[in-house]
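tokens incoming
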């Protein structure tokens, strides 16, 4: 009897957690001069959590990448310029695999065959005037072939992908302005 009652409580509790583990349809994150709209992340290729609630992981992912992009663009954008991105797809480096153990956490396996990818459109504004805009579809097939100084920082492969874009594309476009 106790076992059946505990099972019923566990099912009810886990069901209520799942019901409340929803995220915004198009969340927006902002940090400094950067604003990002994450367009329908439920359809992103791979932003699966491996060990925490999906909504919490997704919020942490979006906030971290927004903060990182702000740091990357802080030396590139002029004082009165801002950049807004609309991310339409994101595929984190690696692939989430079940562990089949007593622990409920899955693991993210990082291999060359699972590169980071991101698709987005962007526009740089100076005040309210549009300076330029563009569309990007980035991936880094050699993401594991370089040495990373910050291997244990969250989302470092995705940040490196965006850093390369800022240094190659965005800097060049802003220098022509």
């Amino acid at each position: 009897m106790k076992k059946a009652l505990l099972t019923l409580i566990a099912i009810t509790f886990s069901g209520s957690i799942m019901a409340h583990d929803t995220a915004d349809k198009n969340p927006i994150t902002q940090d400094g001069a950067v604003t990002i709209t994450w367009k329908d992340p439920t359809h992103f290729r791979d932003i699966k959590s491996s060990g925490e609630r999906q909504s919490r992981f997704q919020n942490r992912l979006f906030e971290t990448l927004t903060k990182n992009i702000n740091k990357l663009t802080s030396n590139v954008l002029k004082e009165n310029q801002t950049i807004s991105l609309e991310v339409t797809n994101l595929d984190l480096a690696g692939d989430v695999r079940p562990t089949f153990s007593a622990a409920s956490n899955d693991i993210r396996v990082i291999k060359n065959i699972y590169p980071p990818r991101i698709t987005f459109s962007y526009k740089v504004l100076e005040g309210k005037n549009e300076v330029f805009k563009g569309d990007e579809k980035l991936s880094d097939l050699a993401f594991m072939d370089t040495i990373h100084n910050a291997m244990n920082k969250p989302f470092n492969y995705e940040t490196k992908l965006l850093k390369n874009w800022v240094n190659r594309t965005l800097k060049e476009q802003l220098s022509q302005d």
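note: The chain has a mean pLDDT of 85.
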